[in-house]
Specification:
Oligomer: single chain
Number of domains: 1
Strand content: 15-25%
Low-confidence stretches: 8-14, 335-349
Order of helices and strands: EHEEHEHEHEEHEEEHEEHEHHH
CATH class: Alpha Beta
Helix content: 25-40%
């Protein structure tokens, strides 16, 4: 299949409404997912936002007062034209792109269409209408877990990813598309927010489900440092990026790190030591038979460091997480049996 690319921006025949910081119009892709849905809740409560445009194939769970729902499937060839039409008609000044999966899937082809081709559709639409600001969700996992990683990965570190992981590779490629968009269209404010593993009392993603399991594999001889971001802090950061103008990439992490063994002890989980030579083939078998929802490459994050430096978000954006790692784990542990109704695959747009 030929690779689809970002089209050159064409001048719109429509006159853009002047930007009014007290009457904002914000579009959110992946509006049914956790990030998109919770952000919409926050925007609904803020009087500075006149209209929120929820773009997804399913309505967001959040109450829709100022929010308009537009059913758009980003995997369809016409998606860029549909998104552009909505943005232009409603006078959107900002688009938050959160239409990404919250975990790996066996449906690799569909995931690629959603996350990579879907991102290209979004960028085409942004170029078409001359959007003022784009905020996109990414992960600190795009750096990859490697033996050569420094203690803390800054935003300038290369996105090495994990080549065997389709889930992470799709995120890396989406970032490359956004980077190219920014080079070709220097006027829009482009912000990329790379979140550490997001857990909390209501989010339901593959990381949260992994740590809810009573048993946890431990690769013998390895005990990497772990890093998390509380779900409330994640939404705080997205709201901050929409409220204010902070171009660039930012790592979003909670304060502090802990060894994997300490995390398991705090959660009361039973560690199951497994030799490395056995862990990978067993994980491949369990993943192939869909017994596990974490692919074998997830073991790399139980083996090597992937800890991000969050100082740029603090100094530039003014982002101050409310939860450190111990508070995050405690909150996750206290209400872990009450996951929210938000779908685990939040990017089904």
């Amino acid at each position: 299949m030929p690779r689809r690319t970002i089209r050159a921006q064409r001048k719109s025949s429509h006159t853009k409404a002047p930007y009014d910081p007290e009457k904002r119009v914000v579009a959110v892709t992946g509006a049914h997912g956790f990030i998109g849905g919770q952000l919409i809740r926050r925007l609904e409560e803020d009087p500075r936002y006149r209209t929120i445009l929820a773009l997804d194939i399913r309505k967001p769970i959040a109450p829709l007062d100022k929010t308009q729902f537009h059913r758009i499937d980003l995997t369809m060839p016409s998606a860029d034209a549909e998104v552009a039409a909505v943005l232009r008609r409603e006078g959107a000044d900002t688009l938050v792109h959160a239409a990404f999966l919250h975990g790996p899937t066996h449906a690799n082809a569909w995931a690629h269409e959603l996350e990579n081709i879907g991102t290209i559709h979004v960028l085409n639409a942004a170029a078409e209408v001359g959007l003022r600001k784009l905020v996109s969700w990414s992960l600190t996992a795009v750096y990859g877990a490697h033996a050569s990683n420094p203690n803390y990965l800054t935003e300038d570190h290369p996105l090495n990813g994990v080549p065997q992981s389709r889930f992470i590779t799709d995120r890396v490629q989406a970032e490359f598309e956004i980077r190219r968009f920014r080079q070709e269209h220097p006027d829009p404010i482009v912000t990329v927010l790379r979140t550490a593993h997001v857990i909390g009392p209501t989010i339901d993603n593959y990381v949260a489900r992994f740590f809810r399991s009573p048993l946890a594999p431990v690769l013998m001889g390895y005990d990497p440092l772990m890093q998390f971001l509380h779900e409330d802090d994640a939404i705080d950061a997205f709201k901050l990026a929409v409220d204010e103008d902070h171009p660039g990439e930012f790592n979003l992490v909670g304060d502090g790190v802990l060894p994997y063994s300490t995390v398991l002890a705090m959660l009361g989980r039973v560690p199951i030591p497994v030799p490395r030579f056995l862990a990978y083939p067993v994980a491949r078998t369990l993943w192939a038979t869909q017994v596990l929802e974490s692919p074998p490459v997830f073991l790399e994050f139980l083996r090597y460091l992937c800890v991000a430096d969050g100082s740029r978000a603090r100094s530039v954006m003014g982002f101050q997480p409310r939860y450190d790692i111990r508070d995050t784990i405690t909150d996750f542990l206290g209400l872990e049996d009450e996951p929210s109704d938000f779908a685990s695959e939040g990017g089904r747009t």
